[in-house]
What we know:
Layout: E1 2-16, E2 22-37, E3 40-46, E4 51-56, H1 65-81, H2 83-91, H3 94-108, H4 120-136, H5 138-148
Helix pairs in contact: 1-2, 3-4, 3-5, 4-5
Amino acid sequence: MACLDAPFGWGRIAVVDRKGISNYFVSFGGLLSVRRTPNGVVTLFSSPAPIAACGGHSQGFDPAAVEMAAFAGRLRAACGAGRDIEAQMTLARPLAVYAAFVADGLARHRHRNGQLVGDERIVDLLRHERLWLSRNAAGEWVRGNDLAQYLS
C-alpha cells in the first residue's frame, strides 16, 4: 500500500538510517515513493536521470558526483538570484535538468581555443551523455541547453 508518491526536485539527497548513519546522493529530480511494509518503511527515489552516490558512511562517490553537486550548487545560487530562473528550473523535467548539467559541463571543460580540457573520464562521460540525450530525448536536450544559459 502506497503511503506517498510525490515528485522531488534536483539537488542533494541525504539518506539517514535508523541508527543515524548517513549516505548522500545528488539528483536531477524524479519521483519519491514511500511504502509501509510489515517490517518498516521503504523509501524509493527514482528518476529517468542519474542519481549519483556522493559519499557518506558506507559508500564512495560516483565518477561525476562532485561535478553534479557543484552544478546543483550553482543552480541553487542562480535560482536565488531571480524568480524567473527558479520558476524555469522548478518546471523543468529531470532529463532537462540533467541535459543542462551536461551542456554546462561541456562548456566548462571547453578551453578558449575550443579544445575540451580537464578530466578525460568526465569529458568522455559528458560527450557520451550529450549523444545519448540528443538521440533519445531530443526535446529535453534542447530544453536543457536553454536552461544551461542561466548558468553562464
